[in-house]
Design brief:
By secondary structure, the protein is mainly alpha-helical. It folds into three domains: about 1-40; about 55-85, no CATH class; about 95-130. Helix content is about 80%, strand content about 0%. It has helices at about 5-40, 45-70, 75-85, 95-130. Helix 1 (about 5-40) crosses helix 2 (about 45-70). The chain is flat and about 75 Å long. It comes from Lophotis ruficrista. One of its GO terms (molecular function) is ribosome binding. Pfam families: LETM1_RBD (PF07766). This is LETM1 protein.
Length: about 130
């Protein structure tokens, strides 16, 4: 069924609350990683990627907060998200957006794999012709 305006507003508020909560958790973890880095420890590749993602999210949060703080500017947020889809921090992404990104990445990887297979097959033909 259709959702009432109140239900839509409550869902949006929950979405933003959860997004800020996840960003807070990521920030605490990133602060611990920075502390470890400052004391000479080495981060794993996964930790380094998480630290970079969290830093990028914090930088993306600044323009996002303008929309939250300035009255009635949140009505322009969908327009800006269409113009700048990477503006929101990663903790605010919906599942459908995450799936869309994964599909695009997978299609790009498949295209690259096809290209590499064709290239290897072509190289094999040339080597066979040169030796045979």
């Amino acid at each position: 069924g259709k959702k009432s305006l109140r239900q839509k507003v409550v869902e949006e508020l929950k979405h933003y609350y959860n997004g800020f909560h996840l960003l807070w958790i990521d920030t605490k973890v990133a602060a611990r990683m920075v502390w470890r880095l400052l004391h000479g420890q080495v981060l794993t590749r996964r930790e380094r990627r998480r630290l970079l993602r969290t830093c990028a999210d914090l930088f993306r949060l600044v323009p996002f907060l303008v929309f939250v703080i300035v009255p009635f500017m949140e009505f322009l947020l969908p327009v800006f998200l269409k113009l700048f889809p990477e503006m929101l921090p990663s903790t605010f992404e919906t599942e459908s957006k995450k799936e869309e990104k994964q599909k695009k990445k997978l299609n790009a990887k498949l295209e690259l794999a096809k290209f590499l297979q064709e290239t290897i097959a072509e190289m094999a033909k040339r080597n066979k012709a040169a030796t045979g």
